[in-house]
Design goal:
The complex is a heterodimer of chains A (about 120) and B (about 110). In chain A, about 0% of the residues lie in helices and about 50% in strands. Chain A has about 120 residues and is an all-beta fold. In chain A, the strands form 2 sheets. In chain A, strands 2, 4, 5, 6, 9, 10 and 11 form a 7-stranded mixed sheet that branches. The model of chain A has no long low-confidence stretch (mean pLDDT about 90). Chain B is built from no helices and 11 strands. Chain B starts with a strand and ends with a strand. Chain B is mainly beta. In chain B, strands 2, 4, 5, 9, 10 and 11 form a 6-stranded mixed sheet that branches. Classes of the chains: A mainly beta (about 120), B mainly beta (about 110). At the A-B interface, β10 of A face β5 of B.
């Protein structure tokens, strides 16, 4: 089955520092990857959609200069939280999709990264 | 606007059957997904329906009626490990995934 990995699983950082989160599709090529954040007891909130080789599309209210997304290859997308603050503490989850119809349109999720900003 | 409704919480007994309903109103439809999410973990894919009818996968089944904008996830022979949130999500006409808020399922012995 389709496997998506994320690294790191959790990270604690000081306020003002930047944190990079990697998302990889391990056994398929992901033309599109998605970045979500989830606060406790809330549903997933889509932050941005990234297509390989092009700029990410950010959802309304998400600061593109703060959350930098790079989809460098068909198997790797990165999210960098710049100048992180305590309110950025959240569970960040990526998903990957290989377009092709049927189940291949399914988004498969990485295990998530728990970010805590002190 | 786009909207997906599912119950906030449900309780069921180990070994029993539970049905989690989902109704949707979206701009277009290109498939409906059910995901399972355990607390503190990312969602895992359960099922995908794009045509009307019932899809069965072991203890889990998912049903879709496009004319009614309705789906349900049926869980049989409930086990304690099935305690989780179940998320309904729909692809709209632009293949944007619209998420429900999730149904927290509590399984009691």
């Amino acid at each position: 089955g389709a496997v998506v990995s994320q690294h790191p699983s959790w990270v604690i950082c000081k306020s003002g520092t930047s944190v990079k989160i990697e998302c990889r599709s391990l056994d398929f090529q992901a033309t599109t990857m998605f970045w979500y954040r989830q606060f406790p007891k809330q549903s997933l909130m889509l932050m941005a959609t990234s297509n390989e080789g092009s700029k990410a599309t950010y959802e309304q209210g998400v600061e593109k200069d703060k959350f930098l997304i790079n989809h460098a290859s068909l198997t790797l997308s990165t999210l960098t939280v710049t100048s992180a603050h305590p309110e950025d503490s959240s569970f960040y989850i990526c998903s990957a999709r290989e377009l092709g119809g049927g189940d291949t349109d399914t988004q498969y999720f990485g295990p998530g990264t728990r970010l805590t900003v002190l | 606007g786009q909207n997906i409704d599912q119950p906030t919480e449900m309780t069921a007994t180990e070994g029993a059957i539970v049905q989690i309903n989902c109704t949707y109103q979206t701009s277009g439809f290109n498939g409906l997904f059910w995901y399972q999410q355990h607390a503190g973990e990312a969602p895992t894919f359960l099922s995908y329906n794009v045509l009307d009818g019932l899809e069965e996968k072991g203890r889990f089944s998912s049903f879709l009626s496009r004319s009614k904008g309705y789906s349900y996830l049926l869980l049989k022979e409930l086990q304690m490990k099935d305690s989780a949130s179940y998320l309904c999500a729909v692809y709209d006409s632009n293949y944007q995934l619209i998420w429900g808020a999730g149904t927290k399922l509590i399984i009691k012995p």
